[in-house]
Amino acid sequence: MFINYLKLQNFRSYKSLNIKLDVNTIFIGSNAQGKTNLLEAIFLMTVGKSFRGKERDMVFWDKDFFRIETKSENPRPLKVEYIYESGVGGGRKTVKINGVKRASSALLDGLKCIFFSPDEIDMFFNFPAERRRHFNIFISQINKEYARELIKYRKILDQRNALLRKISERKASIDDLELWDGKLAEHGSKIISERHKIADELNKTLVCDYKRVSKDKEQLALIYNPAISSKKSAKENEDFWAAFLEILLKSRERDLAAKVTTSGPHRDNFSFQLKGRGVETFASRGELRSIILALKLSEANLLREKTGEQPILLLDDVFSELDEDRREHLTKTFNGQQTLVTTNDLDHISVDLRKSSRIFKVEDSKVEELK
Ligand SMILES: Nc1ncnc2c1ncn2[C@@H]1O[C@H](COP(=O)(O)OP(=O)(O)O)[C@@H](O)[C@H]1O
Ligand SMILES: [Mg+2]
Q1: Hey, whose CA ends up nearest to atom 20 of ligand 1?
Q2: Domain identity same for 302 and 317
Q3: Which residue's CA lies nearest to atom 12 of ligand 1?
Q4: What is the pLDDT of residues 182-229, one digit of tens each?
Q5: Whose CA is nearest to atom 8 of ligand 1?
Q6: Is the pLDDT of residue 293 over 70?
Q7: Beta-bridge mates of residue 277
Q8: From ligand 1's centre to the CA of 36, what distance in Å?
């Protein structure tokens, strides 16, 4: 399944745009012309969230709504509309699928998508919260139940934190924590268990994908290191449930002093090891780029395996930083899924990909097909 039509109104730098996409589509243009904005729109339509910023920042300056529409044909016609109105309440989002209003989480049932940009590298490796966010989005694409659990967990977390504040103001009793501890552990344990399972799955292909993009045979491992651990190897949520309750009790005093919940999946860290060492301390920019690229390839693979759906690849200025060998290598890994690529130089795109692509020039947010 692939998106063959994209329509934008007041989205980022686009007042209005209508384009037909191909299985492979290339957007060429200099900096700040509106290339990434196009990939962002596609990402939003498949995931319901952006890889950067909030919806209110995506509305064309001085306008009060944006609207995105995509169509895909294969195997059945699918029209998706995404409307965001900044003036209504705190901002109102409406998603319609084939004309019928749906919850935005319904987008997760449709197309899958993987975004990669060298611009992500700094944020991704410097901020644990960015990595959590990344994996939350990725796992939600595989498992919608995970997305639901996250929402429940966050609500309960907010309520528990509010209660901690009340207790400190002597407006509530410590005994009231028990109920929220139970609920937090119930939903949190499911999140922890699912993260473990996905990290294990990704680790099966990560070394191989790392070799593909770096020609380096070093052992790359994704480490999920939650504060709550299970003594058993099965990593079922029941095991984490009890362990989470125990931690909540142990850190109760600390939580009361801090007036926030100090441990749980909202604080967990994902990290990477290369040659058995944490990459933050020694890896070069080239290595970090290869790690994140390998991760995305493994993710694309896992999405396909778990959902039976070929994810759309959004590759934002990926090729400029790769030498020719690696470009060819990367291009060979595309196997039939929709691939949308941005670049500022067509010479950076392999001849095969160029030949099989529809090519658009993007200039000052005007998009024109190159014949
Ligand atoms: N809400 C918005 N309204 C209007 N323009 C915007 C908005 N958000 C971003 N832009 C503009 O979009 C441009 C960047 O587009 P982008 O797609 O990131 O460029 P690039 O071609 O380098 O990928 C910038 O000129 C920025 O000012
Ligand atoms: Mg860009």
Answers
A1: 32
A2: no
A3: 13
A4: 999 999 999 999 999 999 999 999 999 998 888 777 899 999 988 887
A5: 12
A6: yes
A7: 274
A8: 8
